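Predict fold of Serine protease; 119 aa.
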Amino acid sequence: MRRLLCLAVLSCTAFAATPALAETHSRDTDRRVFVIIVGDKGTVLSCRQRSPKPACVALERAGGDPARLPSRTDAVCTMEYNPVRVSALGVWGGRPVRYERTFSNSCQMQAAMGPLSQF
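Predicted 3D structure, encoded as tokens:
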């Protein structure tokens, strides 16, 4: 009888916990957060689905991958060498994302990163 009671309690606990686990999983797959560091400045970008922020819209179109952001083809940049390092670490749709790249100068970085570089 004791074994049957323990089994019943464990079964109820498992069923009661299932919605909470599903809700947690749903929140994790909806999570879209980045820490972006450009040179010596940094910011946290938090995007909810259908966010109006230009950086969030650009990332949504790129599937959350900063490497897939479309570069501006009309940008006119000098050939000076003044390197700018960009790092982005975050989660997009429950998937971890890590991005690092060094650009020759800030103009080339802005042309490649678009609104993600403007903070």
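DSSP finds three helices and four strands in the chain.
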